[in-house]
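Lab notebook, page 48
Experiment: co-folding of the full assembly
Goal: obtain a model of how the components sit together before planning crosslinking
Operator: M.T.
Materials (sequences as entered):
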Amino acid sequence: MLNLRDNPLLLYALGICPALAVSTRVDNALVMGLLVLVVLMGTTLVMAALEPVLPEALRLPLALVAAAGLVTAGDLFLRTYLPGLREGLGIYVQLVAVNCLLVGRTETGRRRLSEAAPEAFGQGAGFCLGLLLVALVREVLGAGTISLFPVGSFSGTLRIGGLAEQPVRILLLAPGAFLVLGYLAALYNRSRS
Amino acid sequence: MSYAGIILTWVFANNLVLNQLLGLCPFLGVSRSPAAALRFALASALLMPPFALAAWALERLVLVPLGVPFLQLLVLVLLLVLPLLVLRLRARRPAPAPGIGWYLPQALSSCAVLGVGLLATSAGYGAWSSLVAGAAAAGGYLLAVVVWSALRERLDRHGVPRPLRGLPIALVTAGLMAMAFLAFDELLFKNLLG
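Observation: model returned without errors.
Model output:
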């Protein structure tokens, strides 16, 4: 199901728009990746259920509305349970609703439930892993920390000695997002061939 | 903020592509030609000013008075989906030759257009400022796209190492452009132009 050879983020930059901007922290990337996975799966299930009765012209419009509904629900969930983290994600949470990954899936992906659900899960999970990797590189090199979630006596942030004092700050800014994803995609291409 | 300040901020400091990281998918799609990318960008840019104004109107005149601001996303997506639906239902077959109109359905479902609406409302502008911000965002989008496709055309003629060909070099190019755009600062424009 999880296809590591065709990662949607590293190979085609699908779903890049809402994702790249939040890849400055590992915890942000994890929440965003899970949100994309949930929305992608939910929309796929809705579309597969409606497949027999739905005219072709209505597919994409309906998928977008379904995704917007799911994202709104996810947004309210995050605002309630993780308000601090939700604040940092800004408008990019809402933008998951028009994710290219989702539009591409609706247009060209498989449609029967038995095929569509595993495919959507594989794409969503692959995307989540790719995003985590980008965020890990950006946060470790750009801030010298790894932000996770506080559990018990663990404060939630790992500091990496040496890097935390003199981080490569540009990696946390917009250019860093492009550069890190670009070089990771190059490494990925190299390892595939 | 003055209109000049809004324009400079949205074109340069908060450039949609290079600072907000929106509307990237069409340019990173390796198979697309620069001409196709430009037409797509033009179709998106045309939608941005009216959409920014519409987003403002919905937020201030409908959602906030009714006390349901959390429905913003759903309403904005519906606003984008209705014309998309009309275009789909009226689609002629065989499809007409690719002009700007051919890219409208894709532009309607792109994150750049929705992003402009969301950014403009969260900036807390009035009606005119929203319209100006939408137009400036569109200008900045086109600027980034034109420069980017020119750079990529040049790159194609030079020997790019095999693993970097296609998407990776496009991203690295965008990264270097974004680095140049870091020179523009929102606070600087605010202080200069009020």
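Interpretation: The mean pLDDT of chain A is 88.
Next step: discuss with group before ordering constructs.
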